[in-house]
């Protein structure tokens, strides 16, 4: 498995020679950030899944910070954040909102946003701000719950998949000899 993934990862020397990364060499060149094993891959997937729900372009910054903090594979953590995209972000946020509603015991159901009115733009803007304040608490709590759940599930799934792969490779080696 490592051989297949190493094709896509930069080498330690290429990172060391990159002039843009030179100011960050003390932290970015730590060997554990670029080494790929069962533990670093599982941690990187967990970091990427958790940070993938951060809004906007801050996902990769969050994943990089987590990778640096926990010393897990940096490129893999950045790559995993890409599970959120324009097609998946809306269903994920709706799921997070529903999880947040369940966690706080809100039984009101989904609150639809106010309809857009170009003629009464100021009133619509005020109504939209009120709606955002209503959904902010369940959405925020739900995002934390969903991120934690995805991170834990991803961590253990990678650990299990890596173990299954190693056992199958061991059996194949044993059969050949």
Word description of this protein:
The chain has 177 residues and is an all-alpha fold. Helices cover 68% and strands 0% of the residues. It is built from eight helices and no strands. The two termini are 21 Å apart. The mean pLDDT is 87.
Number of strands: 0
Distance between the termini: 21 Å
Order of helices and strands: HHHHHHHH
User: Which blocks of ≥5 consecutive residues have pLDDT under 50?
Assistant: none
Q: Quote the beta fraction.
A: under 5%
What is the structure about, briefly put?
The protein is an all-alpha fold and 177 residues long.
What order do the helices and strands come in, and which of them pair?
Layout: H1 2-6, H2 12-17, H3 25-28, H4 38-51, H5 58-70, H6 74-80, H7 89-104, H8 121-176
Helix pairs in contact: 4-5, 4-6, 4-8, 5-6, 7-8
Task: Name its key features.
single chain; 177 residues; mainly alpha; 8 helices; 68% helix; elongated
